[in-house]
Design goal:
six-stranded mixed beta sheet; ATP binding; 38% helix; transport; EC 3.6.3.28; Rossmann fold; alpha/beta; ABC_transporter-like_ATP-bd; four-stranded antiparallel beta sheet; 2 domains; binds adenosine-5'-diphosphate
Length: 247
């Protein structure tokens, strides 16, 4: 079945011992969209990504990825379906060089993804040199990752995700702890990736949200969608102002 929706989430509820971290949440996004998700602490943003990636099983509801229900897909298979997740803290191999980090993912994909899951090997689609150019780290390719700045590590990890040729990229607070310049670089990278990927970015930093929100922003509150719209619409929405002022 073909669908223009990369992700559709219906009536999603997560009950943690009686507490609803997600409460009858409905969400959908088009293929090729960059969607930014904001919301106060505890709104359910991370849990939302945990459900999409199979880390947490919903109590109720459906998660459709490219029209297929993936609710019961185990976490280790989600990446193979084409969903890549970047956590807040960069998970790169610090003792390996930038190039070796990218090489490792490309080679792993070649064997695991293509053999077991019949997905194209990343190396056929992206070479390490292309990835280095995409993330703007050509000049640092032979440096150990431990010597990179925090922002550069974030970009390297994003490159490692892109090497998996994901259809949907989930990015959790990529600007956290970055300098203004690094924030802008990571934003520019996400905007360039958005030309060829569907992306969900969770973010707190409103300057950064303004930089990358090229379409719709979704506001989560108490485990549900409070409102959606352009950045201008949501930041002028009295419900959003109330929720943020109430923090
Ligand atoms: P956000 O990312 O928006 O800050 P989270 O998704 O981390 O919010 O958390 C939403 C709510 O669910 C919070 O109140 C949090 O304490 C609660 N929560 C998250 N994971 C668990 C868990 N495994 N058990 C119990 N409560 C949880």
């Amino acid at each position: 079945m073909t669908t223009s929706k990369i992700l559709e989430i219906e009536n999603l509820t997560i009950n943690f011992d009686g507490f609803k971290a997600l409460n009858n949440l409905n969400f959908s996004m088009d293929t090729g969209e960059l969607r930014v998700i904001i919301g106060p602490n505890g709104a359910g943003k991370t849990t939302f990504l945990d459900v999409i990636t199979g880390k947490v099983q919903p109590t109720e509801g459906r998660v459709l990825f490219k029209g297929k229900n993936i609710k019961k897909t185990p976490e280790y298979q989600i990446a193979c379906l084409g969903i890549g997740r970047k956590f807040q803290t960069p998970r790169v191999y610090l003792n390996l060089t930038v190039r070796e980090n990218l090489d490792l993912v490309c080679n792993r994909n070649k064997s695991v993804f293509s053999t077991l899951f019949n997905r194209p090997a990343a190396t056929e689609m992206r070479t390490v040199a292309e990835l280095l150019e995409t993330i703007g780290l050509e000049a640092k390719a032979d440096l150990a990752a431990t010597l990179l700045s925090h922002g550069e590590k974030q970009r390297l990890e994003i490159g490692m995700l892109v090497a998996q040729s994901p259809d949907l990229l989930l990015v959790d607070e990529p600007a956290a702890g970055l300098t203004d310049e690094e924030t802008e670089n990571v934003g520019a990278l996400l905007l360039s990736l958005a030309e060829s990927h569907s992306i969900i970015a969770i973010e707190h930093d409103m300057e950064f949200v303004r930089q990358i929100a090229n379409n719709k922003v979704t506001v989560l509150h108490q485990g549900s969608v409070l409102c959606e719209g352009t950045m201008d619409q949501v930041q002028n929405d009295p419900r959003v102002i109330e929720v943020y002022l109430g923090q």
